[in-house]
Amino acid sequence: MNLLETVNLKRYFGEVRAVDDVSLAIAEGEFISLVGPNGAGKTSLCNVVSAYLTADSGRILFKGRDVTRDSIVERVRAGIARSFQLVNLFDDLSAFDNVALAIFSRDRKIRNPGRLAHLDRAVTAEADAVLAQFGLSGKRNETARDLAQGERKLLDVALAYALRPKLLFLDEPTSGVSTRDKGQIMDTVASVVRGEGITAVIIEHDMDVVFKYSDRIVVMHQGAILAQGTPDEIRKNEQVALILLGTSGPDAFSERD
Ligand SMILES: Nc1ncnc2c1ncn2[C@@H]1O[C@H](COP(=O)(O)OP(=O)(O)O)[C@@H](O)[C@H]1O
Ligand SMILES: [Mg+2]
Q1: Which one of 2, 48, 52, 160 is separated from 171 by 20 to 30 angstroms, measured CA to CA?
Q2: 221 lines ligand 1 (CB under 6 A)
Q3: Domain 4-90+164-245 is classified in which CATH homologous superfamily?
């Protein structure tokens, strides 16, 4: 059975077909990259699947169950979490408190977010373990605002991961960081995701990164799925090269840089 299946999913903004009849099946354990030019509908698809946007029509099945009308909280409880293109951190809180808050919210323990985790040893231990998995132990007590961009992106992924999802959508986890930091972020994310058997959908622009890490690549264009396949299949797809790079030919993906 597919972990996630969208069936004829649509979400329009007026005339703009942000998500246009998307039928996508994702098997458990897959590491998928979702690519496409700016405005292709990648974030909108992620938003609809994670309930940050409602669908106009179509269905979302998670583990075979229809979750189309479920709230964000219900979908998190079912096992769907996501990170954000623009990170969604509590800037005034430490890295540790950000993770602890995610764990508290998952466990529905929050009463007063101002007085945080320090009292709960289980949460403290788990938050420290999550920070360690993301290589952020050394930044534990730093205020989120003061972290480097790459660390902020990793922390945002860590918050989604702390919800213990089965399916994790990561919206441009490497945007705004240097090429070197990109590799480090992707190595960290891939090792956590694969190590825990989490199914991941990563929105990413850098095709070198996409080809390196993905089991499957899904290409969106104007709200619809233009193509999908293995890195090798997508590398050879001239229509995809044309859409993504504005150039075609067998070397389209290696001509840059
Ligand atoms: N909240 C919104 N209101 C109006 N239009 C939107 C909104 N969100 C996205 N869009 C439009 O939907 C299309 C897809 O956007 P988006 O999903 O952000 O694309 P991507 O993430 O692939 O860059 C774009 O034309 C965008 O301008
Ligand atoms: Mg986007």
Answers
A1: 2
A2: no
A3: P-loop containing nucleotide triphosphate hydrolases (3.40.50.300)
Neighbours of 120 (CB within 10 A): 16
Q: Which atom of ligand 1 is nearest to the CA of 53?
A: 1
Residue nearest to atom 12 of ligand 1 (CA): 18
pLDDT (tens digit per residue) in 42-59: 999 999 999 999 999 999
Ligand sitting nearest the alpha carbon of 38: 1
Percent of the chain past pLDDT 90, that is, above it, reads 83
CA dist., res. 22 & res. 8, Å (int): 5
pLDDT band at 121 (very low <50, low <70, confident <90, very high): confident
Report d(CA 24, CA 35) in Å as an integer. 14
Say yes or no: CB of residue 47 within 6 Å of ligand 1.
no
Rounded Cα distance, 74 and 257, in Å: 44
- Hunting for tokens 């960081």 — which residue is that? 177
Please tell me if the CB atom of residue 39 comes closer than 6 angstroms to any atom of ligand 1.
yes
Angle 85-91-92 from CA coordinates, rounded to 5°: 170
Q: Kindly state if the Cβ of 38 falls inside 6 Å of ligand 1.
A: yes
Q: How far apart are CA 240 and CA 132, in angstroms?
A: 38
Domain residue limits, the chain: 4-90+164-245
Q: Is the CB of 13 under 6 A from ligand 1?
A: yes
Ligand nearest the Cα atom of residue 45? 1
CA angle 208, 31, 179 (to 5 degrees): 30
